[in-house]
Write a structure and sequence with these properties.
Layout: H1 26-35, H2 57-60, E1 66-70, H3 76-84, E2 89-93, H4 97-110, E3 115-118, H5 122-128, E4 134-140, H6 158-167, E5 168-178, H7 181-190, E6 196-198, H8 217-224, E7 230-236
Parallel strand pairs: 1-2, 1-4, 2-3, 4-5
Antiparallel strand pairs: 5-7, 6-7
Helix pairs in contact: 1-4, 3-4
Organism: Yoonia rhodophyticola
EC number: 2.1.1.33
Function: Catalyzes the formation of N(7)-methylguanine at position 46 (m7G46) in tRNA.
Length: 237
C-alpha cells in the first residue's frame, strides 16, 4: 500500500485544524446522533464512496440552485442563508464537531429544510461534487494561519482553488470574508489565476458587507479585538 493513502484508498490530506473542542453537551450528542444522517448530502467519505461517484444533487435538492458554505463554524451565516433563500439548496461543510453540533441546534430551532451538512473536510466534498454544480460559495473567515511558514495551509492555495473552480458554474459568485490583511493579499494574488475575477466594486466598498450578510461568531471576536472585516467578491470565469 502506498504511504500516501489511507486503507480506504483516500489520499493523505494533512488537516491542521481542530476536529473536537470542549465537551459536547448531551443534547448536542443527541442532535449529532439523530439529525446528521438525514441531513447528509450523500456518500462523501472514502469509506462510503471509494470510487468517488459524483453526488446526485438533483435528487438532494430537485431543480434548485446549490450554494456551499465552507467552514461554517457555529452555523450562524448558513442558517440565515437557508431562511432567507428557501428556494435554494444549501450545503454546509465543517470538520469541527462542536460547530456541527451548534449548527444542528440552530437548524432545529429555525426549522429549515433546504440544508445538507457534510461534517468533514471540504476537500473530500470537492471530490464528489459534479463539475459546474454550484451557483454560489461562501468562505467566511477561513483559518488565518498568520505565520509565513503556514501560509501554504490557507484555503486560498491551488489544492483548494483548482477543485473549487471545477465545481462552480461559470458566473457563479465566490464570497470571501476575512479580518486578516495578509489574507486579503494572498486571496487577491491567488484566486484570479485560478479562473476567477475580482468584482472590486461589489459590495460597493470592501468594508461594507453584502446586503444579505449575517455576522458570525468569528467576525464578532475579530471586531472585539479591533480587526477590520474585509469582504471580497469574485465570479468564476
Ligand atoms: C476561523 S473559523 C471561522 C468559522 C466561521 N465561518 C465563522 O466565521 O465564525 C474557520 C473554520 O474553517 C474550518 N475549516 C478549516 N479547514 C477546513 C476544511 N478543510 N474544510 C472545511 N472547513 C474547514 C474550521 O474548522 C473552522 O471552523
Amino acid at each position: 500500500m502506498s504511504k500516501s493513502k489511507h486503507p480506504s484508498g483516500a489520499p493523505w490530506r494533512n488537516f491542521y485544524g481542530r476536529f473536537r473542542g470542549k465537551t459536547i453537551r448531551a443534547a448536542q450528542h443527541e442532535y449529532l446522533e439523530n439529525d446528521l444522517g438525514r441531513l447528509s448530502p450523500g456518500p462523501v467519505s472514502w469509506e462510503e464512496n471509494p470510487d468517488r461517484v459524483p453526488l446526485d444533487l438533483n435528487a438532494l435538492f430537485p431543480d434548485r440552485e446549490i450554494w456551499l458554505e465552507i467552514g461554517f463554524g457555529g452555523g450562524e451565516h448558513l442558517v440565515h442563508m437557508a431562511q432567507t433563500y428557501p428556494d435554494i439548496g444549501l450545503i454546509g461543510c465543517e470538520p469541527f464537531v462542536n460547530g456541527v453540533a451548534m449548527l444542528l441546534g440552530k437548524i432545529r430551532k429555525a426549522r429549515v429544510s433546504n440544508l445538507a451538512v457534510h461534517p468533514g473536510d471540504v476537500r473530500d466534498l470537492f471530490d464528489v461534487l459534479p463539475d459546474e454544480s454550484l451557483s454560489k460559495v461562501f468562505l467566511n473567515y477561513p483559518d488565518p494561519w498568520p505565520k509565513t511558514r503556514h501560509h501554504r495551509r490557507r484555503f486560498v492555495t491551488p489544492e483548494h482553488l483548482a477543485p473549487l473552480h471545477r465545481v462552480m458554474k461559470t458566473g457563479a459568485e465566490l464570497r470571501v470574508a476575512t479580518d486578516i490583511e495578509d489574507y486579503v493579499r494572498q486571496t487577491l494574488q491567488q484566486v484570479p489565476p485560478h479562473g476567477f475575477t475580482w468584482q472590486a466594486a461589489h459590495p460597493a466598498d470592501w468594508r461594507a458587507p453584502w446586503p444579505d450578510w449575517q455576522s458570525t461568531r468569528y467576525e464578532q471576536k475579530a471586531l472585539r479585538e479591533g480587526r477590520t472585516p474585509h469582504y471580497l467578491t469574485f465570479t468564476r470565469d
